[in-house]
Amino acid sequence: MENSLKGQVALVTGGTKGIGKAIADKLSSAGAEVVVTARTAPAENPNGHYFIPADLTQAEDAETIAIEILRKYGRIDIIINNAGANLSPGGGFSTLSDEHWYNDWQLNFMSVVRINKALLPAMTEQRSGVIINISTGAAKQPIWGMTMSYSSAKAALNAYSKALAGELGPKGIRVNVVSPGVVKTPLMLDFIENLAKSSNSTVEEVFQGVMDKVGVPLGRMAEPEEIAGLVAFLVSPEAKYITGTNYSVDGGAAPSV
């Protein structure tokens, strides 16, 4: 797939660490000009991705990103909506305030809706483009004690993505979802550490508890690069007949066919 994306402009939200960084690096290696967003600039940027600071829970930042990309490059070919996180505490419905629900939905659902709305006019004018929305296996297999509000926001993202694929297919734009399972990212490791503190458990006990609840046949977390490889394929010309599909990358955890 070397140079398969040469001349294309790609946006990766949350693209400075974890899954987002792995995706940004992979697209860059395939020849794309890559723009990344995050709240703060990365300490290191060895691949020279163009950085736009943004807080995607703020509606106006989506417009700022779109304006800057189109001013600098004049086009947008690939949108990877990767920014997201499980912001709420564990413990189930009684521990979740309105603010917890609001924050999870702003980051994990509304940020995607806003970014797409801001950039889709340019894509529809080109009559080409690819959108990949990064969801989670927890949208189909929620864990009530850990991911209730996060899972609901991502489940909405899955439904939105399917509807968007149906609308945009006739305009030459493909939309797919990638749903990772348990991935070794800084956010995941922080989540496990915080859960250990709040439950007076060890990190090892919490990690094993998460793995037992999720049930991963391969017995380990995924590496971010393993998610990036699938994303790079889905945005490439080799996947030009694939749209409206949700791909699980979960080590076999999904319990259904």
Automatic annotation (TrEMBL):
Gene3D superfamilies: NAD(P)-binding Rossmann-like Domain (3.40.50.720). It holds the Pfam family adh_short_C2. InterPro entries: NAD(P)-bd_dom_sf (IPR036291), SDR (IPR050259), SDR_fam (IPR002347). NCBIfam families: PRK06523.1. Belongs to the short-chain dehydrogenases/reductases (SDR) family. This is Short-chain dehydrogenase. It comes from Pararcticibacter amylolyticus. The lineage of its organism: Bacteria, Pseudomonadati, Bacteroidota, Sphingobacteriia, Sphingobacteriales.
